[in-house]
Amino acid sequence: MSLVAPALAATIVAAVLVAMFAIPAAIQAWADGRPPRAAALGLLAATLLAVAALRMAPRPLGWADVPLAFATVLRALID
Hints:
This protein is an all-alpha fold. The chain has helices at about 5-30, 35-55, 65-79.
């Protein structure tokens, strides 16, 4: 039994993955001298997913819950 509910885990993983792609895209856009429009939308989506995860959580979440969320999602994909 995992410590993170599957729906909550999927939301956390989605937020982390979107942010992992949006942050470098924003940095690259600024380096090229253009506005980071798509990256800003990605960061907004990641923020909304993180807020949704925090609102779904039955208890306060910590940094230790992020690896547990990835493990829960991977376990669900494998099974």
